[in-house]
Amino acid sequence: MNKVLVQTKVKDLNHFNEHFKKAIEPLESSYPEWLFNLKLRALEQFNDIGFPAQDDEDWRFTNISPIEKIHWKIATKQSVQNLPEDILKNVPFLNIKSNRLVFVNGFYIPELSMITEELGFIGNLENFIKGDSDTLKKIYDESGLALNDAFCALNMALSTDGALILIPPNIKLSKPVHIVHISLGSDSSIMSVPQHIISVGRHSNLILFETYSNYSADTTFTNAFTRIIANNGAVVEHIRCQTENQNSYNIATTQSCLGESVQLSLFSIALGGKISRHTIKSRLNGEGIESVFGGIYMASDSQLNDHYLVVEHIKPRCISYEYFNGILSDKARGVFNGRIYVHPNAIKTDAKQTNKNLLLSDDAVINSKPQLEIYADDVKCTHGATVGRLDQNAIFYLRSRGININDARRMLIWAFASEILDHINNQECREKLEKIVADWLSSHFANI
Amino acid sequence: MSDKNDIIESLVKKEYKYGFYTDVETETVPPGLNEDIIRLISHKKQEPEWLLEWRLKAYHQWITMKIPTWAKVKYQPIDFQSIVYYAAPKTRKAGPKSLEEVDPKLLETYEKLGIPLKEQERLAGVAVDAVFDSVSVATTFKEKLAEKGIIFCAFSEAVREYPELVKKYLGSVVPYTDNFYAALNTAVFSDGSFCYIPKGVRCPMELSTYFRINASSTGQFERTLIIADEGAYVSYLEGCTAPMRDENQLHAAVVELVALENAEIKYSTVQNWYPGDELGRGGIYNFVTKRGICKGKNSKISWTQVETGSAITWKYPSVILQGDNSIGEFYSVAVTNNYQQADTGTKMIHIGKNTRSTIVSKGISAGHGQNSYRGLVKVAKSAINARNFSQCDSLLIGNKCGAHTFPYIEVRTPTANVEHEATTSKIGEDQIFYCNQRGVSTQDAINMIVNGFCKEVFRELPMEFAVEAQKLLGVSLEGSVG
Predict the structure, then answer these.
(1) Which of A156, A334, B228, B400 has a 20 to 30 Å separation from A65 between CA atoms?
(2) What ipTM does the predicted assembly reach?
(3) pLDDT reported for residue B211
């Protein structure tokens, strides 16, 4: 086993291996064997594939060499001692009443968390690993874990904590669950590897917020991995909001595995990060699933924002709608890569994908790649992508009614963004997001 | 229904039984590729030194390149050292002596496609008397073209007669460094067509390889170069609707188009090469690099293709829109039946101001066919007010086939307006029922619906071609629904 650890392909990956040796290997005795083996396998996989380069088709437009160049210090529990008092100051959605789980640099902070729900389990992974290993194994198996992505493999190898939410069947939580993640920098560049697992029982109902923010302007790297299992008939609304600072890097994956007649709406709002990428993979593994995937990415300065989406239709009669809108200004780059994959048996599939992009400056760049892969004939699949600037006729219309040009532009951009927000069911959350988007617009486009 | 399918399939297969093997008189070189072979090809064709050097450069580039694997097609790896890279033009003596000797079922297909008798003979490879050959027709055309100053000849002839023109434009659109197969083609290309339309001339007729004397056997590594000088116009047809006999498995052609200021080139292709049998054995690999450049202002290049043949079709006719206000168009119908695979689409590279491009792609998959659209719309920063509209629709017939769409959109200027839309659907049972109810057979109903689906593209084809293409589509899809 040690042999594997030594065989690193790329030199730069060494410090990840060293960290594994130092921080993960000592946990072997407290971990169930299957989980530790899984970690070893994940590390091996990571060493094998290394960080993706741009000749990898999936990473064609996203150059992650800035992340590779930095010597990341993987966060340890010590880094979250003596937290500043106002650690929550940048966290969105704080005043929505919720069951709150707070993580700093990937570690659970019970003092800041608030859980009022008594049904099921809402807590963190770390303690659970030592306890009920069988339940955990079952969930791991159900989630259809895929480690072919370097960042997922790295997360799987190095992570020790994260949220664990287990909702028993036939339950409707009175409040949403909010997973708060805060990256807290220090003198060296900190990397956090939170891993969240959410399992929703049959016919249960869950509203889940997942937010990522920084405490300060330090350079941090968050490599998050979230898995959602929604059992037959579950109703899940998941809203992920990433508002990290512009010096930080955020690479995250959300995998979901859906059972029969599940209703899922998943939203990704990405505003922050120097380089941010959100991979959303969803397996529609039951009949009659209704799913909506929505997203807004807004980037300015030299930010790079990437959304990578794979929706797999495995069983017949499922619906998936995807709506992603991007607003890019200054020298920002946007990447959208969406793929609908329809398996041979997935007849009566109804899949729709739209990606609209607004370029607000001469230097903004968009790379859009909406794809369809269809192996069944009785399906209804469409996709569309547009790139353009603000509609000059619409601006003229507004100006002819006495609205000045800046207001007219802001109004149109706002309308473009709120098109996505309108799909969000949870009203409180939608209102908060509207405010976040509006604030972003007014801070970035005060004078356009 | 499946009976009919068998007939079609078997005739396509049987075609190959009729002794089209290497003639005793054919000069061949040993299989494999090395510098000596290239020198030999060049020597046999009496090429000038610069062309040989260029071929050698391409060869050295080629050996450093890797076989591209990104396309969504599956096939056995090709052994490039087992291919014979040079065979002197085949004499016609190998073919059957008259139409009576030709497989009647093959003739049946020709009948269905409405191909004239003389043409049938040519296609079946009958050694016809030169007087009745289409060659004689070609000569009359040639005179007419020469009057206008249009050069239309075999590539090797152009190298001898018009070296300056060839030297100036050859490789200017598809350099030998472009890709694996382009490099291979550059190193070993056999022959092809050369066409030059002088300033301000509108070519009075549709140019076609049909009418070119030495075009009767399509080369394995063909090279086509078409130049439309300022204000010129040409419409060029490639291929034909009838199943072509051909014993080469790999086809790696290169087509280059150059349109100068105010010029327009319209390039139409109908490709119906041997697609392999119903189990996917055999068939042509069609790996073609086609690219045009709109060099001057207000120029226009339009690609129209109907792809029904080949086991694997892998091509992306592209347009580089360099001149301001230039226009690129791509209209495509690709049909895959049985185990055919197609990965085709286009690239529109917008560089000049106010450039516009339109992409209309229709993919039809039946049987186990896999049909992919892969397209790139790239708008450079300089392409102010660029406009693109792309539409790719897929039609699935049967539940074992696949239809895929991989568009790439890369935009670097906010003034660009790019739209892409794609749909996938199948022929509805209600539609078929409606037709049946009115006395239209299922097969005719399918043909009708498919033709309606492809209408936007057929409209772009020259008229005779369009009629043939419609029939061809019917034949290609025969038996796909039972």
Answers:
(1) A156
(2) 0.80
(3) 42
